[in-house]
Design goal:
With 155 residues, the chain is α+β, with helices and mostly antiparallel strands. It is 28% helix and 21% strand. Strand 1 and strand 2 form a beta hairpin.
Length: 155
């Protein structure tokens, strides 16, 4: 019925057009993940040069811009006294000089894990952010991880 109506208007019916698999996984590109009432939100870094993974952690601790804060975003991460972040392939390790101040499954850890996974996938283009595993090794207390960003984005 609809086909007859469309033909009458000059629109010809077409067959099924294959478009491939639906998109899935995390978006590529450098993103900072900030906390909000609705969970983690990614903010792309479009106009900033960022060095290594240490710099990503510093940017995350500095928090969102004024405009981003007006949208309800905040950072729960406070820069620790001493830390080193290293990455290779699909692995990132955060070495802290002191204790880790958060839990493995809270938003602050999610901010850290997702931001570092995003940056690592840009540093090594063949690595997908979904595949990056982050381990947090505090100077005191148990090791957290390996942790993946997807663990924090499902609500």
């Amino acid at each position: 019925m609809l086909g007859a109506a469309l033909v009458g208007c000059g629109v010809q019916p077409t067959g099924v057009v294959e478009a491939g698999e639906p998109a899935s996984g995390l978006t590529r590109g450098m993103r900072l993940y900030f906390a909000s009432d609705a969970g983690l939100r990614a903010v792309p870094l479009l106009d900033r040069e960022v060095g290594g993974l240490d710099a990503a952690m510093k940017l995350l601790a500095e928090g969102p811009t004024a405009a981003e804060r007006r949208e309800g975003l905040t950072t729960l991460l406070h820069a620790p006294g001493g830390y080193t972040v290293t990455g290779g392939g699909d692995r990132v390790t955060v070495e802290l000089e002191g204790p880790y101040w958060a839990e493995a499954r809270d938003q602050v850890t999610g901010q850290l894990v997702c931001t570092l996974a995003s940056f690592q996938s840009v540093r090594e283009a063949e690595i997908r952010a979904d595949d990056v595993e982050v381990t947090i090794r505090p100077g005191e207390g148990p090791v957290l991880g390996p942790l993946r960003c997807a663990e924090y984005l499902d609500g």
